[in-house]
Write a structure and sequence with these properties.
75 residues, mainly alpha, 77% helix, 0% strand
């Protein structure tokens, strides 16, 4: 698999994970705190082992969960 294809797969996976997390948080807002806690732990682990690209992705994921623009608009 070439670099471009790998990047597309990675972006697609990130988008899917964010969509799943968004639906779960929308249906049960009490899980936001649990997601946030796990995201912080994962960020620290990735950053400490030197995987800064993955840590940045996890950090962006965490910011998106707390971003009001991430919330679904009412119909």
């Amino acid at each position: 698999m070439n670099g471009g294809s790998l990047a597309q797969v990675k972006m697609g996976t990130e988008a899917l994970a964010l969509c799943i997390a968004g639906v779960l948080c929308e249906r049960d807002p009490s899980v936001v705190a649990a997601f946030w806690e796990r995201i912080q732990i994962l960020y620290r682990v990735l950053d400490e082992r030197g995987d800064h690209e993955a840590a940045a992705m996890v950090g962006a994921f965490g910011r998106a969960l707390n971003d009001p623009a991430f919330k679904c608009l009412p119909n």
